[in-house]
Design goal:
Strand order of the largest sheet: 1-8-3-6
CATH architecture of the largest domain: Sandwich
Radius of gyration: 18 Å
Distance between the termini: 23 Å
Shape: globular
Order of helices and strands: HEEEEEEEEHHHEHHEEH
CATH topology of the largest domain: Jelly Rolls
Number of helices: 7
Strand content: 15-25%
Number of strands: 11
Amino acid sequence: MNKMKPAFNASCLNCGLQKICFPSGLHKVDINRLDEIVERKSPFEKNQHLYKEGDKFISVYAVRAGVIKLYSYSDKGDEVVHGFYLPGDVIGFDGLVQNEYLYNAVALDSTSVCNLSYDELSDLSLKIPNLNQQMMSVMSKEMQDGRMHSELLIKRNADQRVAQFICNMSERYKNCGYAYDEFRLNILHRDVALYLGLTPETVSRILAKFNTDRIVSWKKKEVVIFNEEKLKEAAGLNNCEACKELA
């Protein structure tokens, strides 16, 4: 099974994720200018927060390795999971409107990120039109993901939600250039249940059924897709591209 081992100190130009992160569509000289404002932070350990709700909005973060969960709490104190972020994803724009972060961002395993000061990034985007376009694209994706997540909860039954979630994770790893039919996914079934509006027991039951039917196995953080076509059928999809970026 392929492991993700990106070079921690790799520059933007040499990073394997540049085609799906901020450098996408930039010329070499502009990538170098972007690299000058990037702070490559030491890896976050499991359960360590990048930021918490109410913290002052200073930076956005590009994920280099690992998984980050974005969550908040309801008025009743119940945890609400808003999404999971993989290598190449950018988080932190939730702090833009009120100048403070609206959610909590926590590492689910050893996670490396690039820290970009929003003020510096914004200033640079005024000088590099393609970078400004890429920033707009990232923020637009956040809005689209929120809408599609709502549709997932409304229009899909429990089996379809779980299958579509796995399909989406597979597609996202594929976009990163990683193995997408066998991959490590350090996300608790409990967190998946919260994200999908289900109970942990329901998620476990569905995964057991999928394993028995030789569709997919998700055990001890290892996901193995036995039959991609059946997985798409279980998700109610004709093409897995339809579930791209849903989670």
